[in-house]
Design goal:
The chain is built from 15 helices and 7 strands. The chain is of the alpha/beta class. Strands 4, 5, 6 and 7 form a 4-stranded antiparallel β-sheet that branches. A hairpin with a 2-residue loop joins strand 5 and strand 6. Helix 3 packs across helix 4, helix 7 runs antiparallel to helix 10 and helix 11 packs across helix 12. The chain is globular. The N terminus is likely disordered.
Length: about 400
């Protein structure tokens, strides 16, 4: 989990906190701000994987490794396994802690045969890699440069929605602290601090100064920024996500001959485009920014929580108990299933197989249809024709 997301706003309000009297809340008054424990030093902790507290990123990554080892132990090959991480320290550390849980404490140690249990490959987060990347947001030129509908579109939409609920919060805080003015960005950072401090310390006094409805608004604000930054609401999102989806579909098509396990570690903002490419959480309308809707299919907290995981599984049925699924299922038939944070999600229009899975051929046809609708990554991103056109490094 990164602390970098709130760095700029935290630095903005840092000099103000000493002047603020204790905020009041609707339930009970919080402790004085002067009694809050000191925060981490930005130079040493911001933008890094958390290592302390009950929800430490190091712990959750290791736990995920042990959990998935239990689930997929039968697929673990006897030869060294390749896995990948984008070139960011917290992503790399996440991959390493996961590997320790999955492969064992000695996963990097050479075996009697002279090889390690697994090999971690670092994929640069550089702009010149074109489509051969784990971080297409860094390589899609037009996405970076388009100030209206590109990367910054999420912030634009977030700003619109924040203006629907934060001014009332500011008015309450200002009434409690005469002479001090709060911007929407500063108050939003206070809400973010609640989550970040819980992550590091297990609790946070920031959480008590907002009402239940204000937390629901904050949750929706996080939905809005990710939905429009690189998700279904962004013109570039599906094209960026198509790269990893296509590479994964090719591996699933090839089956065990390509390898039994593939692990890739990226930022949350690089997982969301793939879900957009697959249209896994379809909606008839884009998320509104004038109000918080009563219901919606897109929940960022469910899609990319801390330690979020998206798993594609290729299933082969050795027998066909007709009473359990479609009567037309045949023994030996292959299926594809997607697991999002330990929850099985049905592919849109394709869930006739066991366990809400999709027949392999139908899944490949679905991916092909999505590609035709999404378009060409290089063209959409304004890249040269000689730029890499696909991911090439995912192989065992």
């Amino acid at each position: 989990m990164s602390l970098s997301k709130v760095t700029s706003n935290l630095l903005t309000i840092g000099n103000t906190l000493a002047l603020v009297r204790p905020f009041g809340s609707r339930e009970s008054p919080p402790p004085p701000l002067t009694s809050c424990p000191p925060g981490p030093e930005p130079s040493s902790h911001y933008d890094q994987l958390t290592t302390t507290g009950p929800y430490a990123g190091t712990l959750s990554a290791f736990t995920s490794g042990t959990k998935l080892r239990t689930r997929y132990l039968s697929l673990l090959p006897s030869t060294p396994l390749n896995f990948w991480a984008s070139d960011c320290n917290r992503v790399i550390e996440t991959a390493r802690y996961f590997a320790t849980g999955f492969f064992g404490l000695d996963w990097e140690t050479s075996t009697p045969k002279g090889t390690a249990k697994a090999n971690l490959h670092i994929i640069p987060e550089t702009a010149g890699r074109g489509a051969d990347t784990l971080t297409p947001g860094d390589t899609c030129f037009d996405y970076r440069e388009d100030m209206r509908t590109g990367h910054d579109y999420g912030l634009i939409q977030l700003s619109k929605f924040r203006s629907t609920y934060l001014p009332a919060v500011a008015a309450r805080f200002e009434a409690q602290n005469p002479g001090i003015r709060f911007t929407n960005g500063e108050i939003y950072s206070m809400q973010e601090m609640c989550g970040f401090e819980i992550l590091v310390r297990g609790s946070s006094p920031w959480c008590n100064i907002f009402s239940h409805e204000e937390w629901l608004d904050f949750e929706y604000a996080r939905d809005v920024i990710h939905y429009y930054r690189a998700g279904p609401g962004n013109a570039y999102g599906p094209a960026m996500g198509w790269l990893w989806l296509n590479a994964t579909a090719e591996l699933l098509k090839r089956g065990p001959g390509a390898g039994s396990l593939f692990f890739s570690f990226v930022h949350d903002g690089d997982m969301i485009p793939m879900l957009a490419a697959l249209d896994l959480f379809p909606s008839n309308k884009h998320l509104p920014v004038t109000h918080r809707p009563k219901s919606r299919t897109w929940h960022t907290s469910q899609v990319v929580p801390m330690n979020g995981r998206i798993i594609f599984e290729r299933l082969t049925c050795n027998s066909s108990p007709k009473s359990l699924w479609n009567a037309n299922t045949n023994a030996g038939e292959q299926f594809v299933r997607i697991n999002v944070n330990d929850g099985i999600v049905a592919f849109p229009g394709c869930s006739t197989g066991p366990g809400s899975s999709c027949p392999l051929e139908d899944f490949l046809a679905l991916v092909c249809r999505r590609q035709k609708k999404i378009g060409n990554f290089r063209q959409i991103c304004g890249l040269d024709e000689d730029a890499p056109a696909r991911i090439t490094f995912l192989h065992q």
